[in-house]
Structure formats: structure tokens, C-alpha cells
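Pilot study result, target chain (269 residues):
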Amino acid sequence: MLELFTYKPILQGFVVLILTGFAFPITGVYLLRMNLLPLRFMLMHGAILGGALSLAMEVSPFGGTLAINLLLVLLITWMSRSLKSDPGQLSAFFMVLSISLAFIFIYRFQIPAKDSLGLMWGSLYTLNSLEFWGTLLFSLLLILFQALFRHQLRAVFFDADVAKTSGVNESRFYYAIILITAITVAAAMKLIGALLLDALLLLPALIASYHAKSYRGMILWASFWGGLFATVGFLLSLVFDLPASSTIAVFASIVFLLLIVAKKRMNYP
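Predicted structure:
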């Protein structure tokens, strides 16, 4: 199996997957603590729209997914604040609109089925240099953001009003988290696809929420689980010649189920 790492696509895929495995669950913690799960679904569908539009234009899907997600972030932020609309309702609206437009582009431009499925399953081994280094840089910046602003983020997640009275600009951190979520979803879509990105984004955060006793503990445990899922899932995919994204998702789901069962038995002897 070690000789497989002599191939550049596999080595690059492994390196970027491990780093994102540790970094992306941080975004998952943000989503859980701020109750922004509807935003994640909207961005996932927006990423599919961006990918379909990019395939129709014969350009890199990663750039398209990122551009559409950033546009959706700007729209939903502006509409929710200026029009005083509920972000959850806006997310549902844009989610339906995005996926509908995506299928129109796929049908109208006769995008091959294998390329359309690539949006759903990801393409870990087809990263170009810009995507590889860009994803690594974003992952490192995400970890740095958490490290530098951990106290302010803890205050925002505890109570927005308390954060304001403590001198924390709650709105600025809200916008930053939405922007981070948009980029994370676009990057995760490229790596493991729309249908499986929760294996790196949400499952580690959900598992951490069951046993972490503090915000700091939740961040650390979520990163640990995400890194574990990415590493073990990737290696298993090489051993058994399986798709990396699916193997990671299945492994993460099994661990999640086992931990839930173990927790239930501990609580009800």
C-alpha cells in the first residue's frame, strides 16, 4: 500500500484530507452552536449549482462552487438584515432555487452523468495546484482564527447580548462565521462531495457534543474525531480499493452509532 503514496494525486489527496479533517469540524462546531444548520443545506445546494454552472462553462467546478456560495452568503446576509427576514426561511428559499437551477443547467447543457455525479461524490484525486494549496491555506487560517479569537467566540456562542456588553462585535463574528462556512462547504464539496461532506463537517462536532464538557473541549474533540475519520477512512479506502469519500462517511457513521449505543448503555445500566 505504501507504494501508492509515490503517486502525486494520492499523496496530495492524503495531505489535504488529513489537514481538512482536523480543521473543518471547527466550522461544524460553529454551525451547531449558532444553530445555522439551514445555512449549511443552502450552501450545499448552492455548491451543486456552482459546480453545474462551471461544468456547463467548462471551467473548474471548485471556483464556481466558491463563487456561488459567496454570492448566496452576501444575499442572505443582506436580505436578513435589511429586509428583516428570517435567515432560516431565506435558506430554504435559496436551497430550492439553487438545486432547481442546477438541474436545469445539467439538462440544458447535457452535462455527462459522470461529471454530474462528481459534484455529489467529490474528486479528491483531481486537485490542481491552486486547489491544493488554497485548501491547505484556508485550513490553516481556520485553525488560526479559532486560536486567536477563541475567547470572543466563546462569548458570542454563550449569549450574543452578553458578548456585546463585553465589547465583542457580535455582528462581525457572525459574518465571519457565515463566510467561513461558505468556503468550508465549497472545499468539502470538492474533496468528498455534497452527499458526504457531513462526515467531515458535522459528525465530528455532533460526537464531540456528547462528551465534551466545555467549548474548548468541543473544538478539540471535534478536530480529533475529524482527523481520525479522515485518516482511517482514507487508509481503508486504499486497502480495500473503495472510494475515499464513501469509506470516510461509512467509517464516521459506524463510530457515531457505536458511541451513541455505548452512551445509552452507560446511562441505562
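One observation from the pilot: The chain has one domain: 2-267. A full batch analysis is planned for the follow-on phase.
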